[in-house]
Design a protein that fits this description.
The chain has 391 residues and is α/β, with parallel strands linked by helices. The protein has two domains: 144 residues, Aspartate Aminotransferase, domain 1, CATH 3.90.1150; 228 residues, Type I PLP-dependent aspartate aminotransferase-like (Major domain) (Aspartate Aminotransferase, domain 2, 3-Layer(aba) Sandwich). The protein contains 13 helices and 15 strands. The strands form three sheets. A seven-stranded mixed β-sheet has the order 4-10-9-8-7-5-6, sandwiched between helices. The radius of gyration is 21 Å and the shape is globular. 47% of the residues are buried.
Length: 391
C-alpha cells in the first residue's frame, strides 16, 4: 500500500485514540526510519524508549527468527528455556531474587500493586494504601491511571480506583504527612519521564527508603522507562544508590516485542502463591529471546559508560547554544528533557518535517531518548536539526 491508502484505511478502521503525525514509515535501520517515499528520518524517540538497540537490529531479528522456528507461544503451564534464562539474567544483575513476566508497563505496575496489597493484608493488618507522586505516570489501565497523579488522566475514570494517596515529588515532609497505619507501599519513578523528565533532588529517594523502613512500607520503583541502560546504569535505582523492594521493567526489555517484568526482593518472593495472578502472553518465548539480546548488550559496563558519555555530550552541546527558548535542561543518560516556555508541539512537528523524530511530554518539554547505541555522528546530525528548528 502507498502512504495515502494507509492513512485512509487507518481513518476508517482504527479507533481514534491517537493523533497521528503526517508520515507513514516503511522500514527502519539502526537509528533511522524511512517513510513510504524513501525520506530518511533520524530517530531521537526510539518508539517511546522501546527500541534501545535501534531498528532492525540484526541480533534481535536472528534471535526472534530462531525461536519462532521452534515455537512462538506456550502457555505458562509449561517451562520455557528463554524465559528462565532471561529471569536468571535479571536476577544476576539486580537486587531481585524472583521475576514475574507480563506484557506491558501498565500490567507490570498492576502486578506490583496487587502484590503490595496482599503483602499488607498478610503482614500489616490489611494495610492497602499506596502513595504515588504528583506528575507521575504509571500506565493506562484503570488502577495504573488511578495511581497516576495527574488530574487530566482522571476526567472520565470517575470513580477512580480507591486507595491511592498523592504526595509531592521531591518533598519528604509532604510524603511523611501522607503516611498512616494503612499505608502499604510507595510507587515512584526514579525519573518522572512522561511528566517532563524530572529527576529527584539529592537525598530524596534515600529519604523515601528511610521512611519506608521506619514505617514498614514497601518501596516500588517504576523503571518502565528509566531501567535497562536508559540512565547509563543497569537500572535507575543504581544511579541514586537506593534499593527498592520491587521494580517494574518494560518498554526496551523486549527489543520491540511486548514484554515486561516485576522484580521482587527476597522478602516478597513467597507473597504470591498459585492462582494469585496469571497471564496468557506474559513471558512469551519469542519476546524473551529478544530480551536476552537486549540485556546481554545493555548490561555491559562499557556500553553503559558510553550511554552516560552520550547523554553528557548532548546536554553540553545544547547548553552551548544559549537559546533563550530553552528554560531548563533536565535528565540523566539518554533520557533528556528541554523545557520550553511555549511552542514545544510546533517544534516537534517542524523537526519531523526536517527529518528528526522527537517528542513533547509533560508541559512544553521536548523529550530526547534516542537508541542507546546511537553513533556520535548521528547525535551531531540530530542536534544540528534541532538547533536550527529551535532558532
Amino acid at each position: 500500500m502507498d502512504a495515502k491508502q494507509v492513512k485512509e484505511l487507518d481513518k476508517e478502521y482504527i479507533g481514534n485514540t491517537y493523533k497521528r503525525y503526517d508520515v507513514v514509515f516503511d522500514r527502519g535501520m539502526g537509528s533511522y526510519l524511512y517513510d513510504k517515499d524513501g525520506k530518511k528520518y533520524l530517530d531521537f524517540f526510539s518508539g517511546i524508549a522501546v527500541n534501545a538497540l535501534g531498528h532492525n537490529n540484526k541480533a534481535i531479528v536472528e534471535a526472534i527468527t530462531k525461536q519462532a522456528k521452534k515455537f512462538i507461544h506456550l502457555s505458562n503451564h509449561f517451562y520455557s528455556d528463554a524465559q528462565v534464562e532471561l529471569a536468571k539474567m535479571i536476577v544476576d544483575h539486580s537486587f531481585g531474587t524472583k521475576v514475574f513476566f507480563v506484557n506491558t508497563g501498565s500490567e507490570a505496575n498492576e502486578v506490583a500493586m496487587k502484590l503490595a496489597r496482599k503483602w499488607g493484608l498478610l503482614n500489616k493488618n490489611g494495610a492497602n494504601k499506596i502513595i504515588t507522586f504528583y506528575n507521575s505516570f504509571h500506565g493506562r489501565t484503570l488502577a495504573a491511571l488511578s495511581a497516576t497523579a495527574q488530574v487530566k488522566f482522571h476526567k472520565y475514570l470517575n470513580p477512580v480506583s480507591p486507595g491511592f494517596i498523592y504526595a509531592k515529588f521531591n518533598d519528604l515532609k509532604d510524603v511523611e504527612s501522607k503516611i498512616d497505619k494503612n499505608t502499604a507501599a510507595m510507587l515512584i519513578e526514579p525519573v518522572q519521564a512522561e511528566g517532563g523528565i524530572f529527576t529527584p533532588n539529592p537525598g530524596f529517594l534515600k529519604g523515601l527508603r528511610e521512611l519506608c523502613d521506619k514505617n514498614r512500607i514497601l518501596l516500588i520503583f517504576d523503571e518502565v522507562q528509566s531501567g535497562l541502560g536508559r540512565l547509563g546504569r543497569k537500572f535507575g535505582y543504581e544511579e541514586y544508590g537506593v534499593k527498592p523492594d520491587m521494580m517494574t521493567l518494560a518498554k526496551s526489555i523486549g527489543g520491540g516485542i511486548p514484554l515486561s517484568a516485576v522484580v521482587l526482593d527476597k522478602k516478597l518472593e513467597e507473597v504470591y502463591t498459585y492462582g494469585d495472578h496469571g497471564t496468557t502472553m506474559g513471558g512469551n518465548p519469542v519476546a524473551c529471546a529478544a530480551g536476552l539480546v537486549v540485556l546481554k548488550t545493555v548490561l555491559k559496563p562499557k556500553f553503559l559508560h558510553e550511554v552516560r558519555e552520550k547523554g553528557d555530550y548532548i546536554i553540553a552541546q545544547v547548553k552551548k547554544w544559549k537559546n533563550p527558548r530553552i528554560l531548563e535542561i533536565r535528565g540523566t543518560g539518554l533520557l533528556i528533557g528541554l523545557q520550553l516556555e511555549k511552542g514545544a508541539a510546533e517544534v516537534v512537528t517542524a523537526a519531523l518535517k526536517a527529518g528528526l523524530i522527537i517528542n513533547v511530554t509533560g508541559t512544553e518539554t521536548i523529550r530526547i531518548e534516542p537508541p542507546l547505541n546511537i553513533k556520535k555522528a548521528d547525535i551531531d546530525k540530530g542536534l544540528a536539526i534541532l538547533k536550527k528548528v529551535l532558532a
